[in-house]
Amino acid sequence: MTQQRLYHIGFGREDLGDTMPTVALLCGDPERARRIARETDGVTCLATLSENRGLHSYLCRTACGGTFVAATSGMGAPSLSIVANELVAVGMRTIIRIGTSGGIAEQVKAGDLVISSAALCRQGAALDIAPAEYPAAADPFLTVALARAAANLGIRAHLGLTASVDTFYEGQERSDSANPHLLRSLHGITAEYRQLKILNYEMEAGTLFKMGLVYGFAAGCVCAVLAERLVAEAVDLDVKQRAERAAVHVVLAALEALTDV
Questions:
Q1: Which residues contact 254 (CB under 8 A, 6 or more apart)?
Q2: Of 174, 202, 228, 244, which residue is the catalytic one?
Q3: Does residue 51 have an active-site annotation?
Q4: Which residue has the higher pLDDT, 87 or 232?
């Protein structure tokens, strides 16, 4: 199975060459995966592995000579679960989500990073991986490396808990949308999460963390904060670009320190 091109990601082990990378950087947005591969200082894109089903993926080399795969997970946990499963099948042993998120803690500002140590996992896809009470925790060694890399680079980052939910609008208590009628169970949920010391909302990390523990790969997550949900929903595109770039540099520095790439 792993020698052939897998159905969703569109590539197999034979496409990875003799270097056989074991690290994947996973983004929801195919353009972010492309930017990592083609526009990041110190990264060389060796090959486009696939553009199958919008799940763009690239074989990359770092300035230190190591290799990794920059891949697209698509939006949400169901899509991520498919991609992560197939990435493990072709040999990935470390998968780091580089995502975007909305900050809900007062100290988390637009342009900051959140490094997730664990997730409150409110995701249906994760229930097919492990029971609801099974922990959704990132790999501790990888998480510490990410936090140290951010500190060493002088990048403002917060280490802590993330809320992973399935929907962008209702599940994150957004009523200013096509559906203004939130379920009663969702009214006030952001304030409740804030009381639980949760830093941000996003849509994939909880399922990735459970998969890492069940499958046996190291899972991590770094998210660029695009908006402060206590203040406004508006996204400043310049802030977004800088924060995404900072997240990528943190991940690459952490991997260099771990000497896995």
A1: 142, 145, 146, 148, 149
A2: 174
A3: no
A4: 87
Q: Write out the two tokens for 91.
A: 């040999």
Catalytic residue (one of 34, 56, 86, 202): 86
Q: What token pair was written down for 174?
A: 């957004």
174 catalytically annotated: yes
Catalytically annotated residue among 56, 61, 122, 229: 229
Region label for 76, one of left (φ > 0), alpha (ψ between -120 and 50) or beta (otherwise) = left
Helix (H, G, I), strand (E, B) or coil at 144: helix
* CA 8, 23, 33, 251 torsion-angle sign: positive
Measured N-to-C along each axis, helices 77-89 and 205-215 cross at an angle, to the nearest 10 degrees, of: 30
Catalytic residue of the set 8, 93, 194, 245: 8
- Read off the amino acid at residue 82: I
Note the pLDDT tens digit of each residue in 16-32: 988 899 999 999 999 99
Give the end-to-end CA distance of the chain in Å, rounded to a whole number.
25
Helices (H), the chain: 30-39, 77-89, 124-127, 140-153, 189-195, 205-215, 237-258
C-alpha span between 28 and 16 (Å, rounded): 21
1-11 pLDDT per residue, tens: 456 899 999 99
Whole-structure pTM value: 0.95
Between strands 218-228 and 113-122, the pairing is antiparallel
Report yes or no: 80 and 207 within 8 Å, Cβ to Cβ: yes
The whole-angstrom separation of Cα 12 and Cα 84 is: 13
The predicted-structure confidence for 198-241, as pLDDT tens digits, reads as follows 999 999 999 999 999 999 999 999 999 999 988 888 888 999 99
13 flagged as catalytic: no
Alpha carbons 128 and 118: distance in angstroms, whole number: 19
